[in-house]
């Protein structure tokens, strides 16, 4: 009796194992197209992200170059401004000196 129960159990187990394997295969076959679509969508999004990253990196490098150029030009303008300012001060000093000499000469001529 025990042997018959064991045989039935083993037969049922084999049948269930076959059903499990069949169901696994069916699930795999059914899931494969969906998995491919999901992966295709993800890959497409990743490709877009990669392209965007490359564009951002390129624009960042260009912006850094332009910023450095702007800084260099700003420094040159500042140097020119300082030189012009010093020159104007000197011209102002010369004009002031000339007026003082002119006033002193007029005083000498009048006396």
From TrEMBL:
It comes from the Eukaryota. GO terms for cellular component: BLOC-1 complex. One of its GO terms (biological process) is endosomal transport. PANTHER family: BIOGENESIS OF LYSOSOME-RELATED ORGANELLES COMPLEX 1 SUBUNIT 1, BLOC-1 COMPLEX SUBUNIT 1. Belongs to the BLOC1S1 family. This is Biogenesis of lysosome-related organelles complex 1 subunit 1.
